[in-house]
Amino acid sequence: MSVHSQGKRISVPQLRAYKGQQKIAALTAYTAPFARLLDDALDMILIGDSTAMVGYALPNTLSITVDQLAMHAAAVVRSTSHACVIVDMPFGSYQESPQQGFANAARMLAASGADGVKMEGGAALADTTRFLVERGIPVLAHVGLMPQYVNTMGGFKAQGMDEESAERIMQDALAHERAGAFGIVLEGVAEAVGRRITQTLGIPTIGIGASPACDGQILVTEDILGLSGARIPKFASQYVDAGAVIRAAVEQYASDVRDGSFPKLENCFGVKKSGQ
After folding, report:
1. Helices within the chain (DSSP H only)
2. Which tens digits make up the pLDDT trace of 149-206?
3. What is residue 4's predicted lDDT score, i.e. its pLDDT?
4. Residue 113 and which of 63, 68, 103, 266 are 20 to 30 A apart at CA?
5. List 96, 120, 163, 187, catalytic entry
6. Residue 99: inside a domain, yes or no?
7. Radius of gyration (Cα) for the chain, nearest Å?
């Protein structure tokens, strides 16, 4: 049965069951208008910590907070009814201990109504994944290029480009699968690494700059709509130049205001229609 004929929100167990059955289509959303537009077409919406960079023009993802992401996630949840909604755990909200991770993840889900959380980190964070899953919080793991590790990785650099790092990423993914993660985001890894992990794991892999072999793909919505500036990431494709459409509409509006053609009387209150 097609997921789009079921008439209710896709659940975490459903996403996990898509492994080997159908590809998972996912995008980010940070606001209600975007979430409403994306909902029907997607299997999963992620409120990523990329909100920091895309929504707030910050240089990286490190400074956004649980409260900020919870507010964005709540708006997405209220505006959707079909896609599974997952929200990022921000930097510093789960790395200290499994207990810290659970407290903040529980707070995040209670405040937002999201279906699960995503956490970045290798095998060292697998105990936190297990701790959360055993206490009822679904976890989407994230390995490979991890933006929250930008300082230790020395920038946003592709990972798994040599045999040693490729094996480390494989072991990271396996550790989270054993810990109970329902899926793994593979970001910025060598294609062969993404393919091998996908073929090895029994849970879905969701690629972003990984491999076509992944069980699903996720991108930042603004990248595919031409709203991220002149530079399009290597791993993304721009499907439309929505920025050009928006600019043209705004320019026309400004022109109409300046030449007096907007607003018209029909846009005003207390004006009788002709003949009344």
Report:
1. 12-17, 32-38, 51-56, 66-78, 98-112, 126-133, 150-153, 163-179, 191-200, 221-224, 242-258
2. 888 877 778 899 999 999 999 999 999 999 999 999 999 999 999 999 999 999 999 9
3. 45
4. 63
5. 187
6. yes
7. 21
Of the ranges 47-61, 148-162, 214-228, 243-257, which one carries the lowest mean pLDDT score?
Answer: 148-162
Helix, coil or strand: residue 225: coil
* Single-letter residue type at 246: I
Q: What is the DSSP string of 66-79?
A: HHHHHHHHHHHHHT
Q: Report if residue 267 sits inside a domain.
A: no
Asked, for residue 271, whether it belongs to a domain, the answer is no
Rounded to two decimals, the pTM is 0.92
Residue 25's identity, in one-letter code, is A
Of the candidates 135, 216, 141, the one whose C-alpha atom is nearest the C-alpha of residue 176 is 141
Residue 107 included in any domain: yes
Active site residue 187: yes
* Total domain count, the chain: 1
Scored b (16 or more CB within 10 A) or e, 175-190 reads bbbebbbbbbbbbbbb
Euclidean distance between CA atoms 111 and 71, whole angstroms: 8
Residue 230 sits in which domain range? 3-241
Q: How far is Cα of residue 53 from the mean position of the Cα atoms in its chain? A: 13
